[in-house]
From TrEMBL:
Residues 183-364, 370-545, 934-1122 form the Laminin G domain. Keywords: Cell adhesion, Disulfide bond, EGF-like domain, Glycoprotein, Membrane, Repeat, Signal, Transmembrane, Transmembrane helix. InterPro entries: ConA-like_dom_sf, EGF, FA58C, Fibrinogen-like_C, Fibrinogen_a/b/g_C_dom, Galactose-bd-like_sf, Laminin_G, Neurexin-related_CASP. Residues 583-634 form the Fibrinogen C-terminal domain. It is found in: Membrane. The chain crosses the membrane at residues 1164-1185. This is Contactin-associated protein-like 3.
Length: 1207
């Protein structure tokens, strides 16, 4: 942690005070001006338009001219709306609106940008999320602030989904400001040489910042060297940036250099990428885009002791004007600064400090190639062949991560056969099919699924067919002597079998990018394909290569090797000592105590003291006696003999090394209940314990390199051996036997037991000048026993018991494990909430344990079911893990259940509240609690810009509602959810005690009313209700057994959700008579575990420091539990002061009072009162939580896969 803080401090110290940065120079701090509203109509274009009044020129925000917005001719995923800003601008936000006064709006869309209207790049919202949330009606405005912003001239909005009852309809705005750009372009045979000012003093630091756009995948961006072979070089190698550092006495680096720092991937995509290099003596900070590498050199560094010149674009050969020693850079540099100096501006003005070599220009040409992305295995591109020609000639380039995929199919005329070109195992294979012959195959190339561009040339003439991949050629002889090309070539995949195309695919479809396709001698124009003028296609993205590197950053932990395909990544954990999807879970126990608990005998074992933390496992001996002793041996001598030496000189200084590292030893000692290390000392001649000035003549060094002069189990600095502590030394004047001054052999057994100082790493003994003195000692191994996290139980034997822990932080990877035993049928073990995210582990039923969470992709559940009940008052072990690949849950030895995560979904779990116990509340007659959804659903600047309509944008097509209640009152209103549009949901008990539910999802129609005659539920017993709606299908479950499904007729969308009310409703305008009667009567009794989606109203009422979302009227008080105690009409025992006017007043957390006002800044609670449940927990690793967290940026995406299959 200290090193990380120091690295951050170094970055702050290294940054100069100039206003320039790697993103751009001189940009104003306020960069949110509207950019599109003042543009002429000609600046807007689109894929198509429904009519002239629906054209793109009418798509400006809040405008009503024309038809009130842009609508394409056909609503499908290939439509787009484009803006030309006139010049490159910095774009910081976007906003969308539907077509004015219509049913046409877009609910999600992609955003793409480009410098020149070609080679588009998709904007990714915080890494893995591509789609943007759109609108829920025609007129509200939805803003999205871009983090980070980008620079572009052209923007495209690509609708992904739209109102199913209407068409695509959009009005848009773009926000930002002007962008300063100084560009210099290199053609691969040119360079700039910048001669620095010669200063007498060595500079304090070097800071270089720039942006680059690469046309080729290899080339040197900058180079600077010194007199003795020391140099720094920044080079693009196969689309990755490599920073070479050589501190001296070496030639120009090859790919293997003394120090290399590598960052980035796929940087040859002809898009802009930012670079920042900071050098401060031995400290190096290297940043590419959002990823930073910190490097600390050992010893003295000469990185800054370099010549007074630096070259950009290449390394010129001395004495030769246009000769370069390495491959030069082909591309553009933008806003190139060296220690705050604008190098490009100096070059433009032909300043004497700049020497230009070769063809250096100051404008960046736009790419002319048009890539095509094959998005799925069903993608294909069908192009006409040169039918009738006596040859076959096709060339193209491709890049992919997939090991297999169909690339090209073609038929030969006159019935002479067909061919298939495809990838298999990363190699290119050509299969030739001819009548009367068995298929013939040739192979070329290897490792072609490396994400790099590879060139393919296929040709056939007369009796041979040739295929060339890069520089690898393969030849296949043909049977027929005359070759004619067929009618159609199929790239990437085939049509459905029913199409009759004859296309054969020997493997799955190709996922990746193609470019530079030629058929015969004619280049294919993909833009013509996009416009429908050439060929046919399915599921393509034209004019963009959408390849991404899923191993950057790598989510494989503990050194696991990351590999990837187009859709996902995987981790090879072999040899790491860890397992799981991301190599997170250790294969080894944390301690010998855990090995003993599993019944293992004495022997050598690996232990992993920090579990899934960053420290690796190490080998120890476990001695299974009455206690499980962990024995860590050192590599020092078994016995050390110490003889006399001149006064003041060390007689002996011996170091002791251990097989485990310092961090591993620290973790093992911290985990143990007790540690000790024995020192057996024999002395043959008297010696003085101290020098004449009182300086100790012997000491030892612990694991933190601190010197200790005490001996035995005493307190530090006591300077006593064990006999001195026990009072049985051979001479009572001394505290050690060897200090007695007798001419005979004596011995001391010293036990060092201050575990925070152990193990011993060095022992030093001095001499006071006494001749012929002699001693010998033996240092034993480090011995530890006990496991503070393993045998650490907490009994929750009162309803108000709780425990405090640090808050649950496991953004990318976290695991939770604990033991439990109980006799009740259900309850929540632990729960933590964020603004939208949550995590929960619960006993849902006697035979079910469920792990549920939401990281932004919607709620996900993993459930383990047992053939025997868990509430058998026996210990059961639970282990849950959630990472970017998915979630897993295991209970005891039952089969582990897993749920994969979507390939491009949200990945970070963001929690900001306490781990909280469930709350039960007693409602007296006439009382109510109102939960306001406005704050719950507001997404700050990323939702509507109109304050008055923030809450009106909430439209629900599904919701899950749970509650538990206990009452004898009829009629009763259990729950009422209102809407700004007079829509509502009510859950009531009728006069006969039956459960009734009413949905009104269209204010112009009567509500759907359903009665569930399970039994009289106003019987004073605890009942549990779960309501799950998906569109028009509503499933109601009562008491975890009775279940009924109904179909709504009034609609499928719950619009403009306003509030949730428990208890008496003062105004239920527009409600049906039964609901109004129940609302007037309210609810008297106990409510528990109330949830509406992610909202937990009863918990919100007990958070006085949080947002004021809850209004309380009358007497509502938390209670011990709803399952027992006072009946309806007799208030239950209050555990906290009365809640009134919104939130509860806090009281002391003593016996009989719940935790209401504990420290909420960084704390968590896990407890035994979960609704009606009292749990007794035996928890592993800090009671219930063992967390290893990684903090890397990779985030979210809108999942297109069924949530029943993925989370």
């Amino acid at each position: 942690m200290a090193s990380a803080a120091w690295a951050v401090l170094q970055v702050l110290l290294l940054l100069p005070t100039h206003s320039w940065s790697p993103v751009g120079a001189g940009n104003p701090p306020d960069c949110d001006a509207p950019l599109a509203s003042a543009l002429p109509r000609s600046s807007f274009s689109s894929s198509s338009e429904l009519s002239s009044s629906h054209g793109p020129g009418f798509s400006r925000l809040n405008r009503r001219d024309g038809a009130g917005g842009w609508t394409p001719l056909v609503s499908n995923k290939y439509q787009w709306l484009q803006i030309d800003l006139g010049e490159r601008m910095e774009v910081t936000a976007v906003a969308t609106q539907g077509g004015y006064g219509s049913s046409d709006w877009v609910t999600s869309y992609l955003l793409m940008f480009s410098d020149g209207g070609r080679n588009w790049k998709q904007y990714r919202r915080e890494e893995s999320i591509w789609g943007f949330p759109g609108n829920t009606n025609a007129d509200s405005v939805v803003h999205y602030r871009l983090q980070p912003p980008f620079e572009a001239r052209f923007l495209r909005f690509l609708p992904l989904a739209w109102n199913p009852r209407g068409r695509i309809g959009m009005r848009i705005e773009v926000y930002g400001c002007a962008y300063k750009s100084e560009v210099v372009c290199f053609d691969g045979q040119s360079a700039l040489l910048y001669k620095l000012d010669k200063k007498p003093l060595k500079p304090v630091r070097d800071v270089i910042s720039l942006k680059f756009k690469a046309i080729q995948s290899n080339g040197i961006l900058l180079h600077r060297e010194g007199q003795h072979g020391n140099h720094i070089t920044l080079e693009l190698i196969k689309g990755k940036l490599v920073f070479f550092l050589n501190s001296g006495n070496a030639k120009l680096p090859t790919t293997i250099a003394p120090v290399t720092l590598t960052l980035g991937s796929l940087l040859d995509d002809q898009q802009w990428h930012s670079v920042l290099i900071e050098l401060l003596d031995t400290q190096v900070n290297f940043t590419v885009d959002k990823h930073t590498h910190h490097f600390q050199a050992k010893g003295e560094s000469s990185y800054l002791d370099l010549n007074f010149e630096i070259s950009f674009g290449g390394v010129p050969t001395p004495g030769r004007a246009r000769a370069f020693t390495r491959k030069s850079f082909h591309g553009c540099l933008e806003n190139l600064y060296y220690n705050g100096v604008d190098v490009t501006e100096l070059a433009k003005k032909h300043k004497p400090q700049i020497l230009m070599m070769g063809n250096v220009s100051f404008s960046c040409p736009q790419p002319q190639t048009v890539p095509v992305t094959f998005l799925s295995s069903r993608s294909y591109l069908a192009l006409p062949a040169n039918s009738g020609e006596d040859k076959v000639s096709v060339t193209f380039q491709f890049r992919t991560w997939n090991r297999a995929g169909h690339l090209l199919f073609g038929e030969l005329q006159r019935g002479s056969g067909s061919f298939v070109l495809f990838l298999k195992d990363g190699k290119l294979k050509l299969s030739l099919f001819q009548p009367g012959q068995s298929p013939r195959n040739v192979t070329a190339g290897a490792g072609l699924n490396d994400g790099q561009w590879h060139s393919v040339s296929l040709s056939a003439k007369w009796s041979h067919m040739n295929v060339v991949v890069d520089d690898d050629t393969a030849v296949q002889p043909l049977v027929a002597a005359l070759i004619d090309s067929g009618d159609t070539y199929y790239f990437g995949g085939c049509l459905d079998n029913s199409s009759g195309s004859g296309c054969k695919s020997l493997v799955g479809g190709f996922q990746g990018c193609l470019r530079l396709i030629t058929i015969g001698d004619k280049a294919v124009d993909p833009i013509s394909v996009q416009q429908g003028a050439l060929g046919r296609f399915r599921d393509l993205q034209i004019d963009s290569c959408g390849i991404t590197d899923r191993c950057l950053p790598s989510y494989c932990e503990h050194g696991g090797a990351c590999s990837q395909s187009w859709d996902t990544f995987s981790c090879d954990c072999l040899g790491t000592g860890y397992t799981g999807e991301t190599c997170h879970s250790s294969l080894y126990e944390q301690s010998c105590e855990a090995h003993k608990h599993r019944g293992n005998p004495s022997g050598l074992y690996y232990i992993d003291a920090d579990g899934s933390g960053p420290l690796g496992p190490f080998l120890v001996y476990c001695n299974m006696t009455d206690a499980a002793w962990t024995v860590v041996r050192h590599g020092g001598p078994d016995a050390v003999t110490v003889r006399g030496a001149p006064s003041g000189h060390p007689r002996s200084a011996v170091s002791f090394a251990y097989a485990a590292g310092a961090g591993q030893l620290r973790a093992a000692v911290s985990l143990a209940e007790r540690c000790e290390q024995r020192l057996a000392l024999r002395c043959g001649t008297a010696r003085r314990p101290d020098s004449r000035d009182g300086t100790p003549l012997s000491w030892w060094v612990g694991r933190t390199n601190e010197t200790h002069t005490y001996w035995g189990g005493s307190l530090p600095d006591a300077q006593k051996c064990t006999c001195g502590l026990e009072g049985n030394c051979i001479d009572s004047q001394y505290y050690c036997n060897c200090d007695a001054g007798r001419n005979e052999w004596a011995s001391d057994t010293i036990v060092l037991s201050q575990k925070e100082h152990l193990p011993v790493t060095q022992i030093v003994m001095m001499d006071a000048g006494q001749p012929h003195s002699e001693a010998a000692y033996t240092l034993g191994p480090l011995l530890c026993h006990g496991d503070k996290s393993f045998w650490n139980s907490a009994s929750f034997n009162t309803e108000t018991s709780y425990l405090h822990f640090p808050a649950f932080h496991g953004e990318l990877t976290a695991d939770v494990c604990f033991f439990f035993k109980t006799t009740v049928s259900s309850g929540v073990f632990m729960e933590n909430l964020g603004i939208t995210d949550f995590i929960r582990i619960e006993l849902r039923a006697p035979t079910e344990v469920t792990f549920s969470f939401d990281v932004g992709n919607g709620p996900c559940e993993v459930t383990v079911q047992s053939p025997t009940p868990f509430n058998d008052n026996r210990w059961h072990h639970v282990r849950a893990e959630r990472n970017v690949k998915g979630a897993s849950l295991q209970v005891d030895q039952l089969p582990q259940k897993m749920q994969p995560a979507p390939a491009d979904g949200h990945v970070r779990l963001q929690l900001n509240s306490q781990l909280f116990i469930e709350i039960s509340a007693y409602f007296q007659t006439g009382s109510s609690m109102t939960y306001h959804f406005q704050e719950h659903y507001t997404l700050s600047e990323n939702s509507s810009s109109l304050v008055s309509s923030l809450h009106r944008d909430v439209t629900l097509t599904r919701e899950m509602i749970t509650l538990s209640f206990r009452t004898t009152q009829t009629p009763s209103l259990l729950l009422y959810v209102s809407s700004f549009y007079e829509e509502y949901l009510s859950v009531i008990l009728a006069n006969n005690g039956s459960l009734q539910i009413r949905y009104k999802l269209d204010r112009h129609q009567n509500p759907d009313a359903f009665a569930f005659d399970f039994k009289n539920m106003a019987d004073g017993q605890l009942h549990q209700v779960k309501i799950n709606r998906e569109d028009a299908v509503v499933v109601v479950e009562v008491n975890q057994s009775a279940k009924k499904q109904v179909i709504l007729s009034s609609g499928t969308e719950f619009n403009a959700v306003k509030s949730l009310i428990l208890g008496k409703v003062l105004e239920a305008a527009g409600a049906d008579p039964d609901t109004r009667r129940a609302a007037a009567s309210g609810f008297t009794g106990c409510l528990s575990a109330v949830r509406f989606g992610r909202a937990a109203p009863l918990k919100a009422a007990l958070r006085p420091s949080g947002p004021s979302r809850v209004t309380v009227r009358g007497h509502v008080a938390p209670v011990t539990r709803c399952a027992a105690g006072a009946a309806s009409g007799s208030p239950a025992r209050e555990l906290a002061p009365r809640l009134a006017g919104g939130a509860g007043r806090s009281g002391p957390a003593d016996e009989g009072e719940p935790l209401v006002n504990a420290d909420r800044r960084d704390s968590a609670v896990i407890g035994g009162v979960i609704a009606v449940v009292i749990f007794i927990l035996l928890c592993i690793t800090a009671i219930a939580i063992r967390i290893y967290q990684q903090r890397k940026l990779r985030k979210e995406n809108e999942s297109k896969v069924s949530k029943k299959e993925e989370c």
